[in-house]
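In this supplementary section we document a worked example of the pipeline. Step one takes a protein sequence of length 457 as its only input; no multiple sequence alignment statistics are reported here. Step two produces a three-dimensional model, which step three serialises into structure tokens for compact storage. The input and output of this example are shown verbatim.
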Amino acid sequence: MGEIFNILTVPLSLFQAGAGEISEILIVLLIQVAIILAAAKIAGELATRFLKIPAVLAELGVGVAIGPFALGGMSFFGVGPLFPVPIVDGKPALIPVGNELFALAQIGSVVLLFAIGLETNLRQFLKYAGPATAVALGGVLLPFALGVSATVLFGFDGGGGWTSPQALFMGAILTATSVGITARVLADLHRLDDPEGVTIIAAAVVDDVLGIMVLTVVVGISTVDDFTLGTLGWISFKAIGFWLALTVVGILIAPYLEKVLEKFSSTSALMCIPLALALLAAGLAEYFGLAFIIGAFSIGLALSTTRLGHLVEAAMLGIVDFLVPVFFVVMGMLVDVPAMQSGIVFGLVISVLAIFSKVVGSGGPALASGFNMRGSARIGVGMMPRGEVALIIAGIGLSAGIIGQDLFGVSILMTVLTTLIAPTILVPLFRSGGSGVRRIAREEQEQATAIAEGAED
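The serialised model returned by step three reads:
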């Protein structure tokens, strides 16, 4: 996953450029962000008021419409294009938006997951850690197996069979889960603290760790002659160890951090310093092989147990409203509709398998872990969207020469469909009402809560 950091790194030429060039870059960025914010808010208002769908769907859709492969790539009256595809070494860049805009969008995803962590109930998170692990395992194994099988059966394996790099990589892409989109829907519905919501968020964290292990194996087999199980073991140990250490240390220091910040006379410090810790944790997570959003979520989760966490959550509303829509619009901009035309049938098959494998692969273990059919369906659908995670994985595969433009287009089609369909199904599943936990499990939960309250008294 280290390649992701390279993609997000702002080019050194930006800092070496003259004042005129830097000024031009800033002007373009400011105009781009202004258009993105205006388009996101207008589309979101129309979607929620008239179409009765979540604003996140409108933000993704408007991103496709104004992106570099649609209106954003056109010139009007001799001006533009406003969102051109960057050119690197004479070829279109893998990420079809400017580094500055993409980096700003990723900061938006960090802010989103930090806010989600603050809203998450830590006790609920730990209570459902077991089911979440089972959900994540099922949501990795079944998609990987189906992705590999479909690639071979449809002849996109390059003649290498079940162990070909192309087949293994398509399996790896299907294991991805983008928690950002589902988390946004759950937050809008105020269902983050529900058993299903907590399980989805926890499972997505575990899914990320498992997905990194799968991706490491695939890339290692495909690009490195001396790749060994020892290499995989070290990378896995480093990623899992960092995640657990960060979460535990965060929980332990949260009360002390709260006491220190209470001594500050500036109220803005109550928000800025925890946010700074989240950004630092995000950077360290990326360095240790985890997705950066996991670091931000861990800090938010640690602070959720303190009074400071609630103050930070309230103070961050303005930042969330500013940066998060930028993230989702830019995710929509990454969609290259023409690239989907190659291998369209295979792309549709992969998309169906991607949907089925998460609903069944994650929903099945949920059903066996105390959830009823309603709750299992919510969890399975909540794990469905691939979002930016699959796009980044696909970009790594393309840049490493593991997959070509045909499979890259298939990956994009699968990502778009799962990303758009999941919120559309998830909203009515939650709005239909009813508990997602089986009656026996619910009674056990109520008894445990009563015992805990009695012990506190």
